[in-house]
Amino acid sequence: MTDCPKCHYTRTPDDNHIPDGICPACGIAYNKYRAAQQAASVQTDEADDDIEVEYLPDETLKDKIMILLFDVPERIDPVVFRSRAICYVIFFIWGWWFISTNGSWTDIGSSFLHSINLAFHEAGHVIFIPFGRFMTILGGSLFQILVPLIVMIFFLRQHDNFEASIMLWWCGQNFIDISPYISDGEYRGLPLILGMGEESHDWGNLLTMLDMVEKAYYFGRISFIIGSVIIIISLAWGAYVLWRQKKHTLPW
User: Tens digits of per-residue pLDDT, 56-83?
Assistant: First the structure.
């Protein structure tokens, strides 16, 4: 005898007065119920497929970083590429020149880039005033390092990773720029702007407050080494991006 697919009632001879396709207990039509269940099952499977596609694993963090740092447009104008190549050569030579100074204040301070960095340095003192005396003093050196990083992030968000590599270069150069200032913290002999006296020496004051003024030279060397490493990394990054862009450069 037929079992009802819904209530599982089993027909008996006493149910002969009820049509074979109808359940005597719950009254459903067997075929219609089964068809409805099958249709509902198909819709559920389709919905599950949609959900599976919707929640497919996205790009990994590593993939996103690689795209952010090294992805290049499908087509690049040859004039743009050559301009970037020339720019790279300039920063390559300039970067190695800064590294070759070995932290000499005479060389670093004579660069016109020092004057640009100095403007951001002084602005940093003002910006960090709300955070107390220590941060106000540190804010000068800190801000001149942060500015290139902020601009680098902007370029990365615009998918201009070659320009971002130049901003990383500038960040490294700023570490080199402040290295002789840090090293001078113990002796306070470097000339300061506007004729300010040694009492206004940022790193002399900072390291005195930290009771580490006798280690000024070593902190200065660390800053120089960090800057040199960052410059080398930026040059490697820029070279790789240019190499990838060359393959996508349109012919003249």
Answer: 455 688 888 888 899 888 888 999 999 9
